[in-house]
Design a protein that fits this description.
By secondary structure, this protein is of the alpha/beta class. It has 8 helices and 13 strands. The mean pLDDT is 96. The structure holds nicotinamide-adenine-dinucleotide and uridine-5'-diphosphate. The site of uridine-5'-diphosphate has 13 residues, from helix 4 and strand 8.
């Protein structure tokens, strides 16, 4: 297949490009580097099956030559208000990437009669009242809360994707991605994994927001990309959760990272970030992925973190 990947220079997009290329596909990567980096694609320079277009997906997209699939990953993704890469500091760009970017990428998929896959998010469940979250849960989102710029853009993106599927017959798929970590996360991205690893590797206490009782379920990037690839090849049009169901409190997670890195500095509790709309619990129900994609995660938290620690050590110049 010849596949357009938007957000190709980001954390997930760059791993997706690698996987598609290694399976023999041809990839057109698109990105405007708002939160991603050319470094994530540097190893693909000169690859015969890889082409890159620098472009903002919020503007009309033109890609010469037929495409067999369009995978829309372009969007800021970090909720941290202190990070320059956080969507709270890029609110309009985030809404445009989710709304106009999804419209433009669906348009190009329709033009070329190609498959379309939307990178949606567990955030469409908001601060969930049902636990774990199944795909038929409608969510609990504040439409004007701080996270709404991301959550509502993704909810709009899902609705638009289903409208193109139902009205125009576009062959669509929707993946709801839960917290994912691994090499190529931006070190200053502000999400919990880069924050904790950066602090741990510099022998500083880990900043736990609130009392650390909030939970997340962390999926290693290779597992996630494998689930997404299976979804692309499937005929499933309903949204599918992809994530690791092993749930941990943020405080437990901090202790795990301190143990793995040998950091003696412990943790420091910080107030929950004001107005961050930080969900209290999050855990995917992955029965649909298991049933329709025969997918479940394989990489343990310890193994995934060990690989990620190696990457951050190199980035920090510690190796
Ligand atoms: P990232 O910030 O590393 O990557 C996003 C990429 O999109 C960046 O390279 C950025 O420059 C690019 N981009 C943003 N707006 C753009 C625009 N208007 N035009 C062109 N390029 C643009 O983030 P990520 O973690 O790799 O997230 C990728 C996708 O996966 C996002 O859509 C995000 O919502 C979704 N997602 C990620 C997670 C996760 O845990 N990483 C969880 C849920 C959903
Ligand atoms: N968090 C934390 N310390 C940090 C960064 C994040 O305690 O330095 C917490 C944050 O409050 C949230 C969880 O870790 O409860 C996950 O945050 P992240 O920014 O990774 O993404 P989210 O899952 O909230 O979208």
């Amino acid at each position: 297949m010849r596949i357009l990947v938007t957000g190709a220079a980001g954390f997930l997009g760059s791993h997706l490009c690698d996987r598609l290329l290694s399976d023999g596909h041809s990839v057109v990567g698109m990105d405007n580097f708002i939160t991603g980096s050319p470094d994530n694609l540097a190893h693909l320079g000169g690859h015969p099956n890889f082409k890159f277009i620098r472009h903002d997906v919020s503007n009309f997209i033109f890609v010469p030559g037929k495409l067999d699939a369009v995978m829309h990953f372009a969007s800021p993704a970090s909720p941290n208000p202190n990070s320059p890469f956080g969507y709270l500091n890029l609110p309009i760009q985030t809404m445009k990437a989710g709304a106009l970017g999804t419209h433009n990428t669906l348009g190009i998929a329709r033009t070329y009669n190609s498959r379309f896959l939307l990178a949606s998010t567990s955030e469409i469940y908001g601060d969930p009242l049902e636990h774990p979250q199944r795909e038929d849960y409608w969510g609990h989102v504040d439409p004007i809360g701080p996270r709404s710029v991301y959550d509502e853009a993704k909810r709009f993106a899902e609705a638009l994707t289903m409208a193109y599927h139902r009205f125009h017959g576009v062959d669509t798929r929707i993946v709801r991605i839960f917290n994912t970590y691994g090499p190529r996360m931006h070190i200053d991205d502000g999400r919990v994994v880069p924050n904790f690893l950066q602090q741990a590797l510099q022998n500083e206490p880990l900043t736990v927001y609130g009392d650390g009782s909030q939970t997340r379920s962390f999926c290693y990037v290779d597992d996630l990309i494998d689930g997404i690839y299976r979804l692309l090849l499937s005929d499933e049009h309903q949204p599918v959760n992809i994530g690791n169901p092993v749930e941990t409190t943020i405080l437990e997670f901090a202790h795990t990272i301190n143990n793995l890195t040998g950091n003696q500095a412990g943790v420091v509790f910080k107030p929950k970030q004001r107005g961050s709309g930080d969900p209290q619990r999050r855990q995917p129900d992955i029965s649909r992925a298991l049933e329709v994609l025969s997918w479940q995660p394989e990489v343990s938290l310890d193994d995934g973190l060990t690989k990620t620690i190696q990457y951050f050590k190199e980035k920090l110049g510690l190796e």
